[in-house]
Specification:
Structural class: mainly alpha
CATH superfamily: Tetratricopeptide repeat domain
Order of helices and strands: HHHHHH
CATH architecture: Alpha Horseshoe
Radius of gyration: 13 Å
Number of domains: 1
Strand content: under 5%
CATH topology: Serine Threonine Protein Phosphatase 5, Tetratricopeptide repeat
Largest sheet: none
Helix content: over 70%
Distance between the termini: 41 Å
Number of helices: 6
CATH class: Mainly Alpha
Shape: globular
Length: 103
């Protein structure tokens, strides 16, 4: 379904994020990352897409990029008043910290 929607509008951030989220659920993290990256490029204030993009980087052990994306996503979420996304990003930032210290 998302493939057909992307054919009509390949830069639609909602469709890109939805497809990325579904791919993430299927553990297809690299593909998810690519679609989620396009989503935030096309809608830089899309905090949920940042959260999912950071999670994809995290699952791919791309910790420095995950950290960068989470920091930007947290800023965007705060600016949007999206406090739930801020909380969720905070959880993953702590996981990144624990992983980097070997805890």
């Amino acid at each position: 379904m998302f493939g057909k929607l992307l054919e009509r509008d390949p830069n639609n951030p909602m469709v890109l994020c939805s497809l990325g989220t579904e791919l993430f659920k299927e553990e297809r993290y690299a593909e998810a990352r690519d679609h989620l990256k396009k989503a935030v490029e096309n809608k830089p204030d899309y905090s949920v897409a940042y959260r999912m993009l950071g999670r994809a980087h995290y699952e791919l052990d791309e910790d420095s990029e995950a950290r960068r994306v989470f920091e930007k996503g947290r800023e965007v979420a705060l600016n949007n008043g999206d406090l739930q996304t801020v909380k969720e990003i905070d959880v993953f930032q702590r996981r990144l910290e624990k992983r980097s210290t070997g805890e």
